[in-house]
Amino acid sequence: FKESNGPTDSYAAISQADRLQSEPESIRKWREEQKERLEQLDANSRRQEAEWKEKAIKELEEWYARQDEKLQKTKASNRAAEEAFVNDAEDIFPGTEWERVAQLCDFNPKSSKQAKDVSRMRSVLISLKQAPLVR
């Protein structure tokens, strides 16, 4: 048993060709119009897909440019903060430990929305500042 898409014997193929030739003019005309319409739709979809790809590439390039700009700004601010920290580390005086801790910690809970929850650590530091451990 052999499967095929078309007629299996040659007489059936000839009869099918005769049927296609003998179809009415209106059906043949509709078939041609349908074929043109489908080709036009395919061309439109290919054109639209190409436009979407170009737009996506442009948006991706803009996103990479923004990310790179943000990264450069973050690097610059981190370097400045590190330099300030190193300069402040040289000025160590006894009794100023808590002031230095307060400078390094952000005690404003509403300052950064995206940061992790550090409220417990903040409360521990504040309680240690108010009642230091006795050695």
UniProtKB/TrEMBL annotation:
Pfam families: Clathrin_lg_ch (PF01086)
Main location: membrane
Membrane topology: Peripheral membrane protein
Region described as Disordered: spans on this chain: 1-26
GO biological process, one term: clathrin-dependent endocytosis
Domain of life: Eukaryota
Chain segments annotated as coiled-coil in the UniProt record: 31-84
Keyword Coiled coil applies: yes
GO molecular function list: clathrin heavy chain binding; structural molecule activity
GO (cellular component) term, any one: clathrin coat of coated pit
InterPro entries associated with the record: Clathrin_L-chain
Protein name (record): Clathrin light chain
Taxon lineage: Eukaryota, Metazoa, Chordata, Craniata, Vertebrata
